[in-house]
Amino acid sequence: MSLLGALDRIADTPTFDKAIAPARAAVRALLRPQGLKDLLHGTWLGHPLHPVLAQVPVGSWVSAGILDAVPPTRPAAALLIGTGVVAAVPTALSGAADWSEQEVGVRRLGAVHAVANTVALGLYVGSLVARARGAGALGRVLAYSGLGLAGGSAAIGGHMSYAQSSGVSHSATAARGLTHEWIDIGPMDDLPDRRPALRTGEGQGVPVPLAVVRRGTRVDVFVGSCAHLGGPLAEGTVEQVRGADCLVCPWHGSAFELDEGQPRRGPAATAQEKLEVRYVAGRVEARLPGRHLEG
Ligand code: FES
Q1: What is the distance in A from the centroid of ligand 1 to the CA of 225?
Q2: 226-232-235 Cα angle (round to 5)
Q3: What CATH number has the domain spanning 170-292?
């Protein structure tokens, strides 16, 4: 088993589910306003906010560790440690918002990630207190302990993203299954108005679900797997969300603008993959946009 592959065992283990469930309920209650959740998810940014914010505490603490290693620069380390401590609060909130909307295995690993980060934060606060009291050596020991723990926890966060697909666009992954040929969606008149319809794109030997929405004489075609966790968008609804016609996912309510595919409401933070559309003799055809084509 690889070093970080052992983390998958944790994700498979339900031992602490009884403790995780109330923590998740508390996070969801705390972050109930949709605008706050979307702010923390990064829906407005088009990218998950948590990994962006995490650069600040991690970068500050690594830099403080370098300053602590060189005696003349040690006094400046406290400023960086304090910066990391302050930045850890919004970073933790954005992570908690994402965590509360993830599948069970990611939630289990995310709980370990959160506990490790909380302990690391406590060690850094203790380091600041020790330094303020003139106990510089103890302050450095606490800071390096915090750095080791935060580094291990960052590796867990990376495993959640890269190995367990948390925070990645599931629609971009599904889009790669399609060929680059025009796909016949069928006669426009067969499509219901303002209701998603399921069509299938011919993939590289694998059928790929598409969610097709007609509004009058305009048709928008999306990869059918939701960017958030792959929910079936063709089973969703068309709704007005914050002033725009959106395709709404039936699983967790993410809303994607029909015109551009951008998220208007989370938990999705990335755009939904949208296909180019053309109309040929009353029929609709769609294909992947240019960014998926080899040069
Ligand atoms: S799968 Fe979560 S909102 Fe679509």
Answers
A1: 9
A2: 125
A3: 2.102.10.10
Closest atom of ligand 1 relative to the 229 alpha carbon? 1
Q: Rounded to an integer, what is the distance from CA 281 to the centroid of its chain?
A: 41
Beta strands at 237-241 and 244-248: parallel, antiparallel or unpaired: antiparallel
Looking at the chain, which runs of residues are DSSP E strands? 183-187, 197-202, 207-215, 218-223, 237-241, 244-248, 255-257, 263-265, 274-280, 283-287
Cβ distance 209 to 185 under 8 Å? Answer: no
The Cβ of residue 220 has, within 10 Å, a number of other Cβ atoms equal to 24
Cis peptide before 267 (omega within 30 of 0): yes
> Would you list the domain boundaries of the chain?
6-162, 170-292
Q: What's the gap in Å between 247 CA and the centre of ligand 1?
A: 11
Local confidence pLDDT in tens for the 295 residues of the chain: 677 778 888 888 888 899 999 999 999 999 989 999 999 999 999 999 999 999 999 999 999 999 999 999 999 999 999 999 999 999 999 999 999 999 999 999 999 999 999 999 999 999 999 999 999 999 999 999 999 999 999 999 999 999 999 989 999 999 888 888 899 999 999 999 999 999 998 777 788 999 999 999 999 999 999 999 999 999 999 999 999 999 999 999 999 999 999 999 999 999 999 999 999 999 999 999 877 766 5
Q: Counting atoms of ligand 1 from 1, which one is nearest the CA of 230?
A: 1
What H or E segment, with its residue span, contains residue 182? none
Residues 6+ apart with CB under 8 A from 81: 60, 61, 64, 124, 127, 128, 143
C-alpha 170 – ligand 1 centre gap (Å): 10
Q: How far is the CA of 226 from the centre of ligand 1 (A)?
A: 6
Q: Which atom of ligand 1 is nearest to the CA of 249?
A: 4
CA distance 88 to 95: 10
